[in-house]
Design brief:
alpha/beta; five-stranded parallel sheet; four-stranded antiparallel sheet; 8 helices; globular
Length: 227
């Protein structure tokens, strides 16, 4: 059974989400506070995706996201926010979220986002190779990245972006191409999610984030793996 954590303090919204996810074949674990969500994650190791509301009593969704990432980089995280400010979206993604959905949202949109995240988490498992481009080694079976022999902790989305880049060295990739290859052609979201995730990835892999040499920007188009 595919398990999803639903962290939402407003009971009517949480119930609405839970009902629709159950209809889509998901098992839901509910939490009304960030503290409850962290406990639920420890008690339910099979959770693969977490929906986190941002505005919460006690610790907020951003802090819950940070703590999840400190514990487990394999869980998919989608932020739920009632506010449409750009900073909320960027903050959520930089904190380690994979995606965001702004309220109000349709059940079909939310389910599609979760389905896409589940596919990414479960993908590539039959692959049994390595992509080596010194100083990086990408293990496509274990879904891990090393730089100079040191493991770099990546989220599932960051791993997928890294795989796309390392499979296309020297090729300029448009934001649309990256979005299609990583998030899927049925993704409803904005191109901004590509830029924020690339920014986050650069913080982890570049020697100098201000002057990136591995992931370079192709102005007005997209990015290139700079080998």
């Amino acid at each position: 059974m595919r398990k999803v954590l639903v962290l939402e303090d407003e009971e009517n919204i949480r119930s609405f989400v839970v009902i629709n996810l159950k209809r889509a074949g998901y098992q839901t674990i509910e939490a009304a506070t960030g503290e409850d969500a962290l406990v639920a994650l420890k008690e339910n190791p099979g959770i693969k995706v977490a929906l986190l509301d941002i505005m919460l009593p006690g610790i907020d969704g951003f802090e819950v996201c940070r703590r999840i990432r400190a514990m487990d980089n394999k869980i998919g995280i989608i932020m739920l926010t009632a506010r449409s400010q750009e900073m909320d979206k960027v903050t959520g993604l930089m904190t380690g979220a994979d995606d965001y959905v702004t309220k109000p949202f349709s059940p079909a949109e939310l389910t599609a986002r979760i389905d896409a995240l589940y596919r990414r988490i479960g993908g590539d498992m039959m692959d049994d190779g390595e992509i080596q481009q010194p100083p990086f080694v990408l293990n496509t079976r274990k879904r891990t990245l090393e730089k100079n022999g040191q493991r770099i902790k990546l989220t599932q989305v960051e791993y997928s972006i890294m795989k796309v880049f390392m499979e296309n060295p020297g090729k300029a990739l448009s934001r649309e191409e990256i979005l299609d290859m990583v998030w899927g052609r049925d993704y409803f979201g904005e191109l901004k999610i590509v830029d924020v995730n690339v920014r986050r990835l650069r913080l982890k892999i570049e020697d100098n984030v201000q002057n990136p040499t591995y992931i370079t920007t192709v102005w007005g188009y997209g990015y290139k793996w700079g080998f």
